[in-house]
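Q: Give me a backbone?
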Amino acid sequence: MAEVFGRRLSRAVALCLGALFLLAACGGGSNGNTGASSTDVTVWSAWGGAELKAFQDVLAPFHTKTGITVHLTTVRDANQLAINVDAGTSLPDIANGPTVDKVKDWVSKGVMKSVETALGSDFNAYISNTYPALTTPPAGKSDDLYIGIVAGKHYEMMVKTQVKGLFWYNKKVYTGPAPKTFDDLLAINPSQYGAQKLFCAGLESGSASGWPASDQIDNIIMRQNDATFYTNWIEGKVKFTDPQIKLGYQTYLKEVSSANVYGGPNTVLSTNFGKAGDPLFKTPAGCLFLEQATFIPSFFTQDFPALNLKAGTDYDFFAHPSVDSKYDGNVNGFYDNFVMYNDTPAARALMKYMATSDAQQIWANDGGTLAAIKSINYNDPVYKNAASVAASAKNLLVTAGDFMPSDMQAAFWKSLLNVTNNPGSLDSELKRLDQVQAAAYKTS
C-alpha cells in the first residue's frame, strides 16, 4: 500500500533501485543534487515493486520527449528528508512532502517551493483539473497542512489518490441496492442473501494490528462531525472521552459485534486484514460486506485464483453510507504528492509533466490507483466507481491514527483491539487514551 503510513515506512531501510533510463543514486540518503540543471532531475519516492514499475512507465514518455534523465531513488525511510533538512545537506529536486507537523516550518525556511512556482502558467489548469478535495482547504480557511496549503499557497502537488471506507461485496451473493444510510446498512438481513453474517473484518497486521479498525472508526467519526472537529481530534485538541468520540466507538462496535461479524470478535482479532474478505467468496458466503480501501481487490484475486474474479462482474463496492447527512462531503482517503525542493528547469519540467492527464492516464492504465485528475478514464469498473466517490468529496480527510504521535497511534490501535474483544471496557479505554493523549502531544 502506498499509504501515508510514514511511521511504518521509517522502520525500513533505504533501498536503491534503477531500471532503463532511471539511474539509481545509491548512498546514505543525500543524492547530491544536480544544480540548476535542465538535463537531469533527482527524485525520491517510497515506491517499490509494481508501484515503482508503474512510475517508470509514467516517466518513459517524459524522458523520450524532453531528453531529461530522471535519477530515481526508492527511499523507504520516511525520516530521511527531515534528516537532510536538519543537517543542511542536499535534498532531491523532487520528493514527497514532509509529515504534517513540518509543513509550515519548511515553507517558512524556503525548503519547499510552491506549486504555483513549479507550474507557472499551468497552475490554474492543475487546480481546475484536480479533485477539489485535494487542492481546497475547508471553507473559510487559508491553511490545510494535510494537503500542503499554507496561507493560500500550495506546496504539495497531488499526483495519485485512493479512497477508504468502501464496502466490498460478492455480486453473486449480494444483489440488493447500495444502502443510503448506515442504519439502512445495519438493517440488511444477511440470511436473505444466503450469508451467515452482515460483515467480515480482520484486524491482525503484526506490530501494526488494529489499523483496519482505525480506518473503520475514522470513517464513522468524520461522518458524524464536521471536518474541523475531526482534524482537531487528530491534533489532540479533542479528548477521547468527548461524547462524539465515544459515539464513534459505539457505532464501530455495531460492525464488529457478535451478532453482525463473521466468526465473532475472536476471529476478527486473529484474522489478517488481507484475508478478511475471503468469506465473501466461500460457499455458503460467510458475510455480505467487507469495509476496506481501494487496494483490497488484489487480495481477492490472489486468494481465489481458480475463480478468476473480475472487477464489476464478480465483486464491487458501494461508498460508505451516510451517518449524518450534514457531513456527507467528508471522505476518507490518502494520496501521493510531489514537492519541488530545488527549483531547476528540469524539476519544473517534470512537475509540469506530472500534472498532465497524459502522465496520470498511464498510472491509471497500469492499475491499482486513482489519479488526482478528475477526467482520467478507467478500464477497471471498480476504479471508475471509486473515481466518482473521490469526485463527490468536499473534504478528503486523512486517517486519524496515521497522523497521531507514535505513542498515541499505538494506544489508539490497541484500544480498538481491546473494545472489539470486550465492549464493556469502552469507558476505561477512553479514559486511558485521554492520559496517553495528554503526554503524547506534549512531547511530539
Q: What stands out?
A: The chain has two domains: 6-163+334-397, 166-327+403-443. The two ends are 26 Å apart (CA to CA). The mean pLDDT is 90. The first helix runs from residue 6 to 9.
